[in-house]
């Protein structure tokens, strides 16, 4: 087992990464302060892992909430079954919520924990690669709005993150690739060496070789833990973790939640960020090509999908990006590249060049 630490003084917490972690009751019990637990999962994960996780809390008053599966349900209304169960059982401020699932379950459970009785504890048990390498770490919680992704939420740190890599064995290939998009992101923002490693080990990752997956998860979590410790509320450096996300969130919202997985949209968004960087002369076109090839090797899309009979115009891209969380004082800030493995945050880009990038990727 690998143990990392997110250093946030009194809000610090460990990330446990390894196999068979869901069989070890002693690992998680120190992070449950009271006698009440609510496990939140979805219809896909419940038949696979709910009984095993429920057994971890056999000594507690334990309830379960099973939500429908999908990004389309990540709404304010979608978290109400969690709040309803907490209210019905009159659970107190020492209750611990447990998020068992992917990024959607983690975000929704974390947000419910942030607002119930003005904040209660929660634990992350991520079961997808994307959640294990990214969304379960850092305390970002929230739900979507029809006009923008993750626009309603709160920073609320978990008590611990338990990433049992065995759960990746039941992950479908598309979801695995979606997680690889976030892994690639860490290489692009600050590690050319990791980018080279990913190039060399992408077949092993797609084949779910345990050693390769463990290294990729450890590298990603260690990187994110360091960034979060330095900038918990995203006042500066942490925004680098959003490489590709402004474009990606516009794609997700524009196509309709669920039609393009988050990792797929981020993959396209990273290529768009590279495209805009090329147009400014900040990186060479050969660098963009290397990024496209690695993303393609991960079985991720490199263009905005034209399925589902939904198209995204340049105007729609601009309108959706204008509502992004990285708009400050009326200025959109983007994360762009100035070399392979080095990114930066800027509002100093040319609007005409942005429109050229959007025209290259728009589908309508």
Describe the structure.
The protein is an alpha/beta fold and 364 residues long. It has two domains: 169 residues, Rossmann fold (3-Layer(aba) Sandwich); 189 residues, Dehydroquinate synthase-like - alpha domain (Dehydroquinate synthase-like, alpha domain, Up-down Bundle), CATH 1.20.1090. The protein is 44% helix and 19% strand. The longest helix has 21 residues. The radius of gyration is 20 Å and the shape is globular. The mean pLDDT is 94.
Short description:
It is built from 13 helices and 13 strands.
Helix content: 40-55%
What is the average of the pLDDT values?
A: 94
Could you say what the CATH architecture of the largest domain is?
Up-down Bundle
Question: Rounded to an integer, what's the Rg over CA atoms?
Answer: 20 Å
- The number of distinct structural domains comes to 2
Structural class: alpha/beta
Number of strands: 13
> SSE order in H/E notation?
EEHEHEHEHEHEEEHHHHHHHEEEEH
CATH class of the largest domain: Mainly Alpha
Distinct helical segment count: 13
Order of adjacent strands in the largest pleated sheet: 4-3-5-6
Largest beta-sheet characterization: 4 strands, parallel
- Tell me the span between the first and last alpha carbons: 48 Å
Global geometry: globular
Q: Estimate the strand proportion.
A: 15-25%
> Uncertain segments of ≥5 residues (pLDDT<50)?
none
CATH topology of the largest domain: Dehydroquinate synthase-like, alpha domain
CATH superfamily of the largest domain: Dehydroquinate synthase-like - alpha domain
Helix/strand layout:
Layout: E1 2-6, E2 13-18, H1 25-28, E3 36-42, H2 46-56, E4 61-67, H3 80-88, E5 96-101, H4 103-115, E6 121-126, H5 129-135, E7 140-145, E8 148-155, E9 161-164, H6 173-190, H7 192-206, H8 210-230, H9 245-255, H10 262-279, H11 285-297, H12 314-322, E10 327-328, E11 331-332, E12 334-339, E13 342-346, H13 351-361
Parallel strand pairs: 2-9, 3-4, 3-5, 5-6
Antiparallel strand pairs: 1-2, 7-8, 10-11, 12-13
């Amino acid at each position: 087992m690998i143990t990392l630490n997110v250093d946030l003084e009194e809000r610090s917490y460990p990330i446990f990464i390894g196999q068979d972690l869901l069989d070890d009751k002693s690992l998680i019990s120190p992070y449950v302060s009271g006698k009440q637990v609510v496990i939140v999962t979805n219809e896909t994960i419940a038949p696979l892992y709910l009984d095993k996780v429920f057994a971890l809390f056999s000594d507690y008053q334990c309830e379960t909430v099973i939500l429908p599966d999908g990004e389309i349900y990540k709404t304010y209304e979608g978290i109400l079954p969690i709040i309803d169960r907490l209210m019905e059982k009159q659970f107190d401020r020492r209750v611990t919520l447990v998020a068992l699932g992917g990024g959607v379950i983690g975000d929704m459970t974390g947000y419910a924990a942030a607002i119930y009785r003005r904040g209660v504890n929660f634990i992350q048990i991520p079961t997808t690669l994307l959640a294990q390498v990214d969304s379960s770490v850092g305390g970002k919680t929230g739900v979507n709005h029809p006009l923008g992704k993750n626009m309603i939420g709160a920073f609320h740190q978990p008590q611990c993150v338990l990433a049992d890599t065995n759960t990746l064995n039941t992950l479908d290939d598309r979801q695995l690739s979606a997680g690889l998009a976030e892994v690639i992101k860490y290489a692009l923002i600050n590690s050319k060496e990791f980018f080279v490693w990913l190039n060399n080990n992408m077949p092993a990752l797609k084949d779910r070789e345990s050693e390769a997956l463990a290294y990729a998860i450890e590298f990603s979590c260690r990187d994110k833990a360091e960034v979060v410790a330095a900038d918990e509320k995203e006042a500066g450096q942490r925004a680098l973790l959003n490489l590709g996300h402004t474009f990606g969130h516009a794609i997700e919202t524009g196509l309709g939640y669920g039609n393009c997985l988050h990792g797929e949209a981020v993959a396209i968004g990273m290529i768009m960020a590279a495209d805009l960087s090329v147009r400014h002369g900040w990186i060479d076109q050969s660098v963009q090509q290397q990024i496209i090839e690695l993303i393609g090797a991960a079985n991720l899309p490199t263009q905005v999908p034209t399925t589902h009979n939904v198209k995204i115009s340049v105007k729609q891209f601009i309108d959706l990006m204008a509502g992004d969380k990285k708009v400050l004082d009326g200025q959109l800030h983007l994360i762009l590249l100035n070399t392979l493995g080095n990114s930066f945050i800027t509002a100093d880009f040319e609007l005409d060049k942005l429109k050229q990038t959007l025209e290259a990727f728009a589908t309508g």
